[in-house]
Amino acid sequence: MRPTQAPFPATRLRRLRSSDALRRLTRQTSLSVDDLIWPVFVRDGEGIEEPVSSMPGVLRRSVDLIGAAAREAQAMGIPAICIFPYTDPALKTELCEEAWNPDNLANRAIRAIKAAAPDIAVMTDIALDPYNALGHDGIVRDGIIVNDETVDALVKMALAQAEAGADLLGPSDMMDGRIAAMRGALETAGHTDVSILSYAAKYASAFYGPFRDAVGASGALKGDKKTYQMDPGNSDEALRLIERDLREGADMVMVKPGLAYLDICRRVKDTFGAPTYAYQVSGEYAMIEAAAQNGWIDGEKVMLESLMAFKRAGCDGILTYFAPRVAQLLQG
Ligand code: PBG
Predict the structure, then answer these.
(1) What are the tens digits of pLDDT across the range 174-208?
(2) Is there a domain that residue 139 lies in?
(3) CB 65 within 8 A of CB 49
């Protein structure tokens, strides 16, 4: 209910904007380092830090360097790091067996981070695309992305990640029934405290372009992901997906991409009150960086304003490639 306002001049809404002190005092939303999950790219080799060309400022690091990066993030107070592997094309197959290899790149990175920075939470991505010769998040048979066979593969992948020490599993595949299957398998295997942050409302978006370059999936992918990722025109369907995933055992839920889907974040938070995250995806990051590099916007200010928008829309946290830069700024 909106209280009736006294007429002008009793109500001068500018009064509370008149000084920095009053603006701080009346600010409803704040951004904190506690809100950040930092997505990182890992690759094979040793001593390698290579730039991702479509994401200025973002690196692919070899596993031996990922521990140090995590330790720095931990020292800056970032609560979680999320691993994405750039898999050697020679390891990609149509059945995606590398996805549940206990010694694959992602699982080695989990162990390296756990050893170097035991207090930072390690999040993973669960989808077959980095391991799939056909570039899709699921197994492809006769041109169709098959649901149930993919779920079986994803469960094996989830167990291998939990075994390696992951704290937060992030299914990003959009198959039906995967959360229940993973939760059941985790319980049976004794991983009762491994959390699931479901990419529950994930849209078939053009904003993922730079990411697919970063993990080397662009070349393999034929066609699009519209038979499993959501149609950008839909909003009610996001609520049905979130409700379903929470019921199946997800602990936290995500909306992805971020800035173009803030209405979805708000509806999800208002409807379920569950821990809600947004992913400020690669294309969003690239747009801000590109404009900033051209001197067209103040990159730092736009970065902070965009992240604040997620908080204002009801998100509890944000996956963002800006995480270390934000942490540094907030530390002053
Ligand atoms: C894999 C996955 C993708 C992203 C996160 N996990 C790409 C996709 O679905 O095609 C995108 C992240 C980003 O763009 O930053 N399923």
Answers:
(1) 999 999 999 999 999 999 999 999 999 999 999 99
(2) yes
(3) yes
